[in-house]
Design goal:
single chain; 485 residues; mainly alpha; Glutamyl-tRNA Synthetase, domain 3; Arc Repressor Mutant, subunit A; 3-stranded parallel β-sheet; 21 helices; 12 strands; 50% helix; 10% strand; elongated
Length: 485
């Protein structure tokens, strides 16, 4: 993406701390981070906290925590936009002094009346800069009197265009852009002005963000030009839609990134999944490590069409990453979930570490999420089983026959070496002797041992549970079924 003579790019992620880090913001941060890491560039974080009424410390912490969980590190000190107010004002005054902006003393009440008049005529309201034209003497009197005014940008004639790295050439006729406010009457900046002022100060060379910002870009380009600063490149990535085809947003309940952490999604899987929302690595590749994503990431792979957030696809992706993650690393991530669920203590997991890793190896094959894995692990720690009603209804529906089969299983295993191969041979022989298929023996046995209809291989389960626990659970199942006829 860069050549030896091209300076390394500087990119930023600039969320507003008015809510949690949602998946759309996380995807934007990830794309900026991947581009920076691919090119040897710099990834910066700016908290746009100028909306003091809605910005909260809690939301700021959630943004930091979400990015940290995803493994997205930033390269310089965090910039807080609210701390840059004086620079925002200086830049607005520069525009005023150079004639690119002008003072507007029109009151909010007057503007509201003009909008209502336009609506009554069936027209779209546009600001007429002639409203702000005052005789120099009148201007001087108002300034001396301290009348409040906004600073408006004087949009020139012509067209504002740029080559977008995603969408190609985009052009806006300037006649369709109102003379927009740069500084409010209380001397606080409007969004577009604050963003440009900060991006200039931070040396941003590529602005990569959601394509809902496309309409802001011509205004920002005009500000760069008026301030005499280099215009960065722009890349507007597609919005993320839900399965219903509607845009995800904070207001429409897009789940916070932190919620997926609590749902048992691995950060590596979330990174991989988010990367594919608006980017294609090519070669039909889907499951990727972080290093592979960095290697493959390119502007050419960015897509124009909206991406779809499919929770089932995320869970599938998570299952793939659970299989690829080294078992010790997976165990370290899983351990807090196990402790929180009350399955075991830290000491118990440490004492039975080898057994615990062996259990994880077997369980992760069928698990899609960490919480699902914890659920599957529960029977191996429990003193007393909780039986799944659907499993009981399906595999123990003939209670007398099932009790007889399980009683024979217990009798056979009591005299069998506690080894998977030996137990398999013995139980297959038993099924043949009783004139039933192995499924009629193994499935009821699985429910007796785990309380569930699904588990790792039944002989692996027997070995993991051990002789005493296994035989105790089989006898308990026989009694629950009413005993042997």
């Amino acid at each position: 993406m860069t050549t030896p003579n091209t300076p390394a790019p500087r990119l930023r992620f600039a969320p507003s701390p008015t809510g949690y880090l949602h998946v759309g913001g996380a995807r934007t941060a990830l794309f900026n981070w991947l581009w920076a890491r691919k090119t040897g560039g710099t990834f910066l974080l700016r908290i746009e906290d100028t909306d003091k009424a809605r910005s909260t410390d809690e939301s700021t912490r959630a943004i930091f925590e979400g990015l940290t969980w995803l493994g997205l590190d930033w390269d310089e000190e965090v910039v807080f936009q609210g701390a840059n107010l004086e620079r925002h004002r200086r830049d607005a005054d520069r525009l005023l002094a150079s004639g690119y902006a002008y003072r507007d003393f029109t009151t909010a009440e007057e503007l509201d009346r003009l909008r209502k008049d336009a609506e009554a005529r069936g027209e779209t309201f546009t600001f007429d800069r002639r409203l702000a034209e005052l005789h120099p003497d009148e201007l001087e009197r108002r300034l001396e009197r301290g009348d409040p005014y906004t600073i408006r940008f004087r949009v020139p004639e012509g067209t504002t265009e740029w080559h977008d790295l995603v969408h190609g050439r985009i052009a806006f006729p300037n006649k369709d852009i109102d003379d927009f406010i740069v500084l409010r009457s209380d001397r606080t900046p409007i969004y577009n002005h604050a963003v440009v002022s900060d991006d200039i100060a931070m040396g941003i060379t590529l602005v990569m963000r959601g394509d809902d910002h496309i309409s802001n870009t011509p205004k920002q380009i005009l500000l760069y030009e008026a301030l005499g600063e280099p215009i960065p490149d722009f890349a507007h990535i597609p919005m993320i839609h839900g399965m219903d085809g509607k845009k995800l947003s904070k207001r429409r309940g897009a789940v916070a990134v932190g919620d997926y952490q609590h749902m048992g999604i691995l950060p590596s899987a979330m990174r991989n999944f988010l990367a594919l929302l608006g980017w294609s690595p090519g070669d039909d590749v889907e499951v990727m490590s972080q290093a592979e994503m960095i290697t493959r990431f390119s502007g050419e792979g960015l897509l124009k069409k909206a991406a779809v957030f499919d929770l089932k696809k995320l869970e599938w992706m998570n299952g793939q990453h659970m299989m690829l993650t080294p078992i010790a690393e997976l165990e370290a991530y899983l351990r807090p979930f196990v402790l929180q669920a009350g399955l075991a203590t830290e000491a118990q997991l440490t004492e039975r570490h080898s057994w615990w890793l062996q259990l994880l190896e077997l369980l992760r094959v069928r698990a899609r999420t960490v919480t699902d894995l914890v659920r599957q692990a529960q029977p191996y720690f429990a003193d007393a089983l909780t039986y799944d009603e659907a499993a009981v209804a399906k595999h123990w529906k003939d209670a007398p026959a099932t009790a007889g089969h399980l009683d024979s299983v217990a009798t056979t295993l009591e005299t069998t070496e506690w080894d998977a191969t030996a137990m398999e041979t013995a139980l297959r022989t038993l099924a043949e002797a009783r004139g039933i298929g192995t499924g009629k023996l193994f499935q009821p046995l699985r429910v007796a041992l785990t309380g569930m209809a699904e588990s790792p291989g039944i002989f692996d389960v027997l070995v993991l549970l051990g002789r005493d626990t296994s035989l105790g659970r089989i006898r308990a199942a026989v009694n629950r079924l009413g005993g042997v006829p």
